[in-house]
Specification:
binds copper (II) ion, mainly beta, six-stranded mixed β-sheet, Immunoglobulin-like, 4 helices
C-alpha cells in the first residue's frame, strides 16, 4: 500500500504560463491512435493482495495556515492513496474511532454488494470503536474515490476520503503520473468549519465551500519533467460544486479516460467535473521553468486550482502522440433487446414513506437519524428517500432483471445540475439532448439543467444498489434511491 502524501502529490509535469488571463489549452489531435485492444489473459494483479490500514478518527490539522481544523480522516496521511494492480484484491482493515458510526463506500468499483459500504443497505454501520474488513477484487483500472455513505455532508465535509488507484492500463509509461483531488472547505473568517449544509443551498445548486483546495492544499505547485508527457488524473471529492476544469495555455492535451475508464485519446478543452467525477488527461509539458495552470472555468472569473511546473533538462518526445490506454475491461453493453426505463429527477414538496419488502418476507433493516435528513427537497420518479423519523428504507425505484441490458433515460426536470451515480455497475454514455460527447463509460453522469441523457448498462451485479445524485446534500434530502438487481 502506498500511503505517502508525497507520492500522492507526486512528481509531475506541465505547461504554458501565458498571461494573467487564462487562455484555454488547445489540442491538435488529428492523427491519434485508437485505444489499445483489451488485454488478453491474466490481469496484472491476479493473485495479489494489497493490505491497507484505514483508521478513521479526528485528526486536528492546520491545513491552510489558519489554525487547526478538526479534520476527520482515514489515515495520518490525511488524503490516503491505495494503489493496486488490476485484478488484485484490496483488503482494507478499517477501524472507526470517529464520534459517530460510518462505513466506507468504494465509489465506481464493480464489487460484490456486501462490500459496497452503504449503511443499512449493504452492511450494518461500523459503530465507534468497531472494526470492519473490506476485501474485494478490483476489476477495472483507473482512479476511484472512497468515502462514507452516511452523514456524508459532514463526514466528507470534514475531509473523510481517500483515493484508490487501480494500475495496469498503460501501454507506454508516462513521464509522470500526477493526481489532483479537488475539494472545497466550508470555513468562516476565523478558519473554522461553517455548517456543512444550508437549506438554501441544499434546495438549489448546493452549499458551496468557501476555500478551494487541491490535494488539501491551496493552489499547490506540482512538478513534472519539461517536455514530458504527463498523466494528469483529476478528481472531485467536493460535496457540491461542479468545476469546469481546463488547462491554461498553448499546451497539447488529450482526454484519455473518464471516471477511470479509458477512451481513445480525444481533444480536450474543458470538462464539467461534478462531485466524485474523474478525468485523466495526457499533457505535454512545456520548457523547463514554464508552467501549466489548472483552472475552474465555471466561475465568471476563472479560479486557479493548481499549477504544474516543468523541471529538469527537457525531454525530447517528438510530436504529441498520447499513448492510448488499454481498452476497458468492461464490455460494451449489447443494446439489442435492451429494456428502456425513464428516471426523472425533480424537486418535490413532500416525502414518500415506503417500506422495503425483502424477498424472504422480512423488511430491510432500519435506518437512523444520522443517515437521513429531516428535510426533503428532491425526488426520483416522484419518490423520495423517506424523511427522518420514517425509519425505513424506501422500496426500490426499479427492479432490474439480472443479466439484462438496460437503457436509462435520465431526465433532469430541475434548473440545477445533478451528477447521477450508480453503484455496482458502470454506465455507457450514449447521447444527450443538449451536448455531443464521445461515447464513454462513466459511473457518475452529470445532468445539466433540463438535460436528458441516455446511458446503457448490463445489470449483471445482483443486489440492492444505491442510485443517487452525488451532490451530497441533494442525495441526503431526497435524490437517492435503490435499484434492485435480482
Ligand atoms: Cu443533485
Amino acid at each position: 500500500m502506498n500511503l505517502s502524501r508525497r507520492t500522492f502529490i507526486g512528481a509531475g509535469a506541465a505547461l504554458a504560463a501565458l498571461s494573467s488571463s487564462p487562455l484555454l489549452a488547445s489540442a491538435r489531435l488529428d492523427t491519434l491512435r485508437p485505444l489499445a485492444p483489451r488485454r488478453d489473459g491474466a490481469l496484472p494483479g491476479a493473485g495479489q493482495v494489497v493490505e491497507a490500514q484505514l483508521h478513521a478518527k479526528v485528526r486536528p490539522t492546520d491545513l491552510f495556515g489558519r489554525g487547526e481544523l478538526p479534520l476527520w480522516t482515514y489515515h495520518d496521511d490525511i488524503l490516503p492513496v491505495i494503489r493496486v494492480p488490476q485484478g488484485g484484491r484490496v483488503r482494507a482493515h478499517f477501524k472507526n474511532d470517529l464520534p459517530e458510526h460510518t462505513s466506507i463506500h468504494w465509489h465506481g468499483i464493480r464489487l460484490p454488494n456486501h462490500m459496497d459500504g452503504v449503511p443499512y443497505v449493504t452492511q450494518q454501520p461500523v459503530e465507534p470503536g468497531e472494526a470492519y474488513v473490506y476485501d474485494f477484487e478490483v476489476p477495472d483500472t483507473g482512479l476511484f474515490p472512497f468515502h462514507s455513505h452516511c452523514n456524508t455532508v459532514e463526514q466528507l465535509g470534514r475531509g473523510l476520503a481517500g483515493a484508490l488507484v487501480v494500475t495496469g492500463d498503460e501501454t507506454r509509461t508516462y513521464d509522470a503520473d500526477l493526481m489532483c483531488v479537488i475539494k472545497d472547505w466550508r470555513l468562516n473568517a476565523n478558519g473554522e468549519f461553517l455548517d456543512f449544509m444550508e437549506d438554501k443551498g441544499a434546495s438549489r445548486g448546493g452549499t458551496f465551500g468557501t476555500h478551494r483546495s487541491v490535494n488539501f492544499e491551496t493552489v499547490p505547485t506540482l512538478e513534472a519533467p519539461a517536455g514530458g508527457d504527463v498523466r494528469l488524473r483529476l478528481m472531485s471529492i467536493d460535496n457540491s460544486r461542479v468545476n469546469q476544469v481546463g488547462l491554461e495555455g498553448q499546451v497539447d492535451v488529450a482526454l484519455i479516460a473518464t471516471d477511470g475508464q479509458a477512451i481513445a485519446p480525444t481533444s480536450f478543452k474543458v470538462w464539467r467535473l461534478g462531485s466524485a467525477m474523474r478525468i485523466d488527461l495526457c499533457v505535454r509539458m512545456p520548457k523547463a521553468g514554464e508552467t501549466v495552470k489548472i483552472y475552474d472555468y465555471f466561475a465568471p472569473e476563472p479560479v486557479l486550482l493548481a499549477t504544474i511546473k516543468a523541471t529538469g533538462p527537457g525531454l525530447k518526445r517528438g510530436d504529441f502522440d498520447p499513448a492510448p490506454l488499454y481498452a476497458p475491461t468492461i464490455q460494451e453493453p449489447d443494446l439489442t433487446n435492451a429494456i428502456f426505463k425513464r428516471v426523472e429527477f425533480s424537486a418535490t414538496a413532500a416525502a414518500t414513506p415506503n417500506v422495503i419488502a425483502m424477498p424472504g418476507g422480512e423488511e430491510l433493516n432500519l435506518a437512523d437519524a444520522l443517515c437521513l435528513n429531516d428535510k426533503t427537497f428532491w425526488a426520483m420518479n416522484k419518490q423520495t428517500w423517506p424523511e427522518d423519523g420514517h425509519e425505513r428504507m424506501p422500496a426500490p425505484i426499479l427492479t432490474l432483471k439480472k443479466d439484462r441490458t438496460y437503457v436509462f433515460e435520465l431526465v433532469n426536470a430541475t434548473p440545477h445540475m445533478h451528477p447521477i451515480h450508480i453503484h455496482g455497475h458502470t454506465f455507457l454514455y450514449l447521447k444527450s439532448n443538449k451536448r455531443s460527447l464521445p461515447k464513454h463509460f462513466t459511473d457518475t453522469v452529470l445532468l445539466k439543467p433540463k438535460e436528458r441523457i441516455h446511458v446503457a448498462f448490463k445489470a449483471d451485479n445482483p443486489g440492492d444498489w444505491m442510485f443517487h445524485c452525488h451532490i451530497i446534500e441533494h442525495a441526503e434530502t431526497g435524490m437517492m434511491s435503490i435499484l434492485r438487481v435480482a
